[in-house]
Amino acid sequence: MGKTLKKIKLHGFNNLTKSLSFNIYDICFALTPEQRREYIEYIDEEYNAERLTQILTDVSNVIGANVLNVARQDYDPKGASVTMLISEEPIASELIDNVTGPGPLPEAVLAHLDTSHIAVHTYPESHPDNGISTFRADIEVSTCGRISPLRALNYLIESFDSDIVIMDYRVRGFTRDVKGQKHFIDHKINSIQNYLSKDTKSRYQMVDVNVYQENVFHTKMMLKDFDLDEYLFATSKRELLEAEQRRIEKRLRREMAEIFYAKNLRRI
Fold this sequence. Notes:
By secondary structure, the protein is an alpha+beta fold. The protein has a single domain (17-261), classed as 4-Layer Sandwich (S-adenosylmethionine decarboxylase). It has helices at 33-46, 49-63, 93-97, 153-159, 198-203, 242-261, and strands at 17-29, 66-74, 80-87, 117-126, 132-144, 164-172, 175-176, 182-183, 204-211, 216-223. Strand 7 (175-176) and strand 8 (182-183) form a beta hairpin. The N and C termini lie far apart (43 Å).
């Protein structure tokens, strides 16, 4: 957990823009074409525009902002988008004091939010030949002022079935203190991992690529544990021969590695 910093006396509004964007991936194996269609239908229903709107509303509550406007859309044949405009207002003292700490998990959401904008887009897809199906959610939380999008990290990771999470955080612009000095960041950070819960950090392997002088931070995570039953849609490994289990597990692990490392691996 980060330390509470001495507050800077600012001249006027805090003009720093803090943007958190990340891709969340869920990977599964659907044995038959029918199961693959059912998986896409399940994902489309589970993460439709109405459900995504509720998740983003909760995010607003987590980071301490008010929702000004909501635009949402379900797409045919698949996918959905939601965009929220938010605006900053005075924040409860407990939120200000804990602005650098990890945000809450879904069961601990109690606040309200407002600042700049939050958006989510979903991309369910299925490989036509090898049974692999994936669900990707692209999320951006961008705020101005004192409210930090980093507080939304743990809630969003837990709200989606996340096998792989790829995150980028950047602070842009500057604000001035009462003496006229520019401040290009208003909080200490050396890694996005500083803001993740202990439970999240224990479940994922992580890699950082950070550019400190530009206030750019990049972290990607992949689940450590692998249980084949967790990746099979509408079937279980008890219904499969051992050789088939090994073949499917190999495909799933390769798919996860290719997404994590952002490159195609040699197929054996």
